[in-house]
Amino acid sequence: MVVLVLGSGAREHALVRTLLDDDGVDTVVAAPGNPGIAAEPGASCRAIDPTDPAAVVALADELRPSLVVVGPEAPLVAGVADALRAASYDVLGPSAEAARLEGSKAFAKEVMAAAGVPTALAHVCTTDAEVTDALDAFGAPYVVKEDGLAAGKGVVVTDDRDAALEHARACLARPGGRVVVEEYLDGPEVSVFCVSDGTSVVALPPAQDFKRVGDGDAGPNTGGMGAYSPLDWAPADLAEQVLARVAQPTVDEMRRRGTPFVGVLYVGLALTSRGMRVVEFNVRFGDPDGQVSLARLRTPLGRLLTAAATGTLDELGPLRVSPDAAVTVVLAAPGYPAAPTTGGPLTGLDEAAAVDGAWVLHAGTRLDRDALVSAGGRVLGVVATGGTLAAARTTAYDALSRIHLDGGHHRTDIALAAERGEIAPAS
Question: Assuming Cys at both sites, which of 53, 83, 152, 336 could form a disulfide with 332, CB separation 3.0 to 4.6 Å?
């Protein structure tokens, strides 16, 4: 079985590694991939633009893959999955219309309302006056979200009304700009990745990620600085609750609309004092929270994603999940997220990967005359597993300590509060 994975980040590296663990998968080709993927036995990379439907179909025609997995959101919104399906390929990834669940927060709210999904109250705003009224209606803390794709960085949560208004104005100034102003949800946030074939849905083990750049959740939002799973403090049946109350109703509503959702539905939740509430949907695996969910998956990934792509998920049976814990810690470039400096040499990756129970995922790297250098804001993700959360956390930080990037930075408190038993749903 040949699998084509579209994308170039740590999410795609995690997908490639997990697919190669499936005995039914012979080779994986990533497009465009990254140096870490290229070094995986059984994997190779091809330099194409994954958002160009014609280029992707041409590569598929050359490779004749059994399955195409679309990693990031941009190719999905660009209609790459549609073009591949039109060319008769099995694809894990929603159509451009179904991908609007991530491409437009306003559309996602509309679908949630129709499906009866519990979520935050919200106003969709297109003018300064509407934003001002919404901010005043909800009060602080203020939550302002750019309507379109923003790579996880289009959300501002602040007690500063002027800062909230400034972010809203910057979003509105863009062509077709609009924002969603929401009520603030108390309680810890959780990630649950659900795989759907358009009718049936299954859920991977829940994870929690860390969006702020600094320890103690200080500083601005990022694409994610680390994650862990399992969540021993969350309800034991959380995944089942998400399937029953969120994922299945959403998939049913999308099918009712004539735009069935085939792919990964990321459900971002807050466990509030009033119960579970959806913060947002994405339409692909997360990064880095998806990495720890995949690290605990024992059902062969190729088999799972093929079942979703071919409408046979109901024949798969319950997912098998490891009882072990998984932790990911992200190494970021100097200046990230405001103004990352790239091009710095990276060393110590082999030493890190030699730590038992740890591996290194490439997020933003490139080769410069055979030397590995940073090429993005988030550079690497170090993943580790262990019999306990404390063991996985220790291994991850041990491996990370062996890697060097001048000026690189990481959070030191990933999964620390959970390890100490200091997290609980809001009450």
Answer: 336
Q: Which residues of the chain have pLDDT under 70?
A: 149-153
End-of-domain residue from the set 139, 155, 182 = 182
| Tokens 């990379």 belong to residue | 45
- Number of residues assigned to the chain: 427
Structure tokens at 311: 């409408």
My answer on whether 310 and 333 are in the same domain is no
Strand 2-7 to 27-32 pairing:
parallel
Q: Say which amino acid occupies 423.
A: I
Which run of H or of E encompasses 12? helix 10-20
- The reply to whether 379 falls in a domain is yes
Q: Where are the beta strands (DSSP E) in 240-370?
A: 262-272, 275-282, 325-332, 358-362, 365-368
Q: Under a CB-based contact definition with an 8 Å cutoff, are residues 119 and 272 in contact?
A: no
Q: In terms of Cα–Cα distance, which of 286, 320, 356, 284 is closest to 93?
A: 284
Q: Are 211 and 152 in contact (CB under 8 A)?
A: yes
Using the CB atoms, write b or e for 320-331: b if 16+ within 10 Å: ebeebbbbbbbb
pLDDT of residue 153: 54
Containing structural domain, residue 165: 122-182
Question: What's the confidence (pLDDT) of residue 246?
Answer: 97
Tokens matching residue 196: 């759907």
Beta strands 378-386 and 358-362 are: antiparallel
Phi, psi of 185 (to 5 degrees): -105, 125
What per-residue confidence (pLDDT) applies to 419? 96
Angle at alpha carbon of residue 348, lines to 343 and 353, rounded to 5°: 120
Q: Is 19 left (phi over 0), alpha (psi -120 to 50) or beta?
A: alpha
User: What CATH number has the domain bearing residue 243?
Assistant: 3.30.470.20
pTM for this entry: 0.91
| 109 occurs within a structural domain | no
Q: Which residues pair with 383 in a beta bridge?
A: 328, 359
Q: Is 187 left (phi over 0), alpha (psi -120 to 50) or beta?
A: left
Clarify whether residues 199 and 292 are in a common domain.
yes
Residue 389: closest CA among 423, 414, 370, 365: 414
Write out the H or E segment, with its range, that includes residue 167: helix 161-172
Sequence-ordered list of residues with C-beta below 8 angstroms from that of 343, at least 6 positions apart, any chain: 368, 373, 374, 375
Distance between CA atoms of residues 376 and 286, nearest Å: 17
Residues ≥6 apart with Cβ < 8 Å to 264: 92, 93, 193, 194, 195, 196, 283, 284, 285
Task: For residue 95, give both structure tokens.
Answer: 């159509």
